[in-house]
Amino acid sequence: MKEYDVKDMGLAKDGRLRIEWANESMPVLNRIRKRFEKEKPLKGIRVAACLHVTTETASLMQTLKAGGATPFLCASNPLSTQDDVAAALVKNDKIPVFAIKGEDHKTYYRHIHAVLDAAPHYTMDDGADLVSTLHADRLDRIEAVRGGTEETTTGIIRLRSMAKDGVLKYPIIAVNDAQTKHLFDNRYGTGQSTVDGIIRATNRLMAGSNFVVCGYGWCGRGLAMRARGMGAHVIVTEVDPVAALEAVMDGFAVVPIAKAARIGDFFCTVTGNINVIRKEHFAVMKDGAIIANSGHFNVELDLEGLKALSKTVQKVRPFVEQYLLENGRRVNLLGDGRLINLAAAEGHPSSVMDMSFANQAMSIEYMVTAHKNLEPDVYPVPEAIDRRIAKEKLAAMGISIDRLTAEQKKYLASWSMGT
């Protein structure tokens, strides 16, 4: 197999500095790395990772290697790679990386095949493209695989569908469902980084604008919270009545997308579903509407429908394509409809990815010993791992909490003590 495929090895110095900067805000993963260096719990295993190639991911790869593993890394999104980080991992850490920001569809899948060529024992996925490619096209490599992890909601949906249909060949841990992942990464990470990406791409003022958030899961909650903090009037669209009710109770306007399309200034999808904003919605938008996506795949936006409505398309800024519609109005698409927080910005802050990637590292460690007792299915992160990460994070922040007294433990375990 080819040793690596990155844009420019000359970027390695800048990448090293940025990785070191990220590591300063990742105390939990740093603690795990120090333990891994001593114990080598991953000795002799090969890990194929399909993740966003960022400074935080670099820290995770370094941690796996410290534990004795041989990691191979490719991108989980064509626009999410930080080229200087990819170069630094190859040059300084001798970790094979196959990722170039802006790579085309063919190159994206060639890179996925490259990490599968390594005959991995474990997979580490973000969106399930690696796992689905392995099952569909690389059955020659599947026998060696013992287990894996999945980082995001979209991937877990796909994997559970595979398990339900009886085609999933090995056990996978749903890292996204850990409380120390989705309650923090999805809410605080996505919220801040998405607003960051939209502002970097557009330099438009959010205060006083109508900001439409499509989807009120944990990512949508975080985005709505941060957009309101920027002074925007936040409008939520939903299909789930419970989520919609929660958005109302949180103080947001909730309307159907058909109505929101006519009044929004900014739109951002965070649903994990397909064609959330469609042709008929683009057709009624205000002149100058800004469209972004922070869900895993750009299928949340009906881009073919947008093209069909348009007379011309021109790139007006980095990561901004302006579609001139037949009706004379302009619609501005950010980052090709891909994850705007990674396409135009740097993704989640390191301090929140610290917990997410601590879950990844410890879940792989757990899988090394537990895989023999697990059927091909999607499993939660063990509660003990989740709680340990929370405790480590609090300790790193210098925060102490109370402990139950013996009396309190007895009371909670009793059914006879009432009023």
Task: Provide structural commentary.
The protein is of the alpha/beta class and 419 residues long. 46% of the residues lie in helices and 16% in strands. It contains 18 helices and 15 strands. The protein has helices at residues 12-23, 27-39, 55-66, 83-93, 105-116, 129-137, 139-142, 153-164, 179-202, 218-229, 241-249, 257-263, 279-282, 303-309, 340-343, 350-370, 383-396, 406-412, and strands spanning 46-51, 70-75, 97-98, 122-125, 147-150, 172-174, 210-214, 233-237, 253-254, 266-269, 289-293, 310-317, 320-325, 330-334, 378-380. The protein has an eight-stranded mixed beta sheet, with helices on both faces. Strands 3-2-1-4-5-6-15 form a seven-stranded parallel beta sheet, with helices on both faces. Helix 9 crosses helix 16. It is globular and about 65 Å long. The mean pLDDT is 96.
Topology overview:
Elements: H1 12-23, H2 27-39, E1 46-51, H3 55-66, E2 70-75, H4 83-93, E3 97-98, H5 105-116, E4 122-125, H6 129-137, H7 139-142, E5 147-150, H8 153-164, E6 172-174, H9 179-202, E7 210-214, H10 218-229, E8 233-237, H11 241-249, E9 253-254, H12 257-263, E10 266-269, H13 279-282, E11 289-293, H14 303-309, E12 310-317, E13 320-325, E14 330-334, H15 340-343, H16 350-370, E15 378-380, H17 383-396, H18 406-412
Parallel strand pairs: 1-2, 1-4, 2-3, 4-5, 5-6, 6-15, 7-8, 7-10, 8-9, 10-11, 11-14
Antiparallel strand pairs: 12-13, 13-14
Helix pairs in contact: 1-3, 1-4, 2-3, 2-16, 3-4, 3-16, 5-6, 9-10, 9-16, 16-17
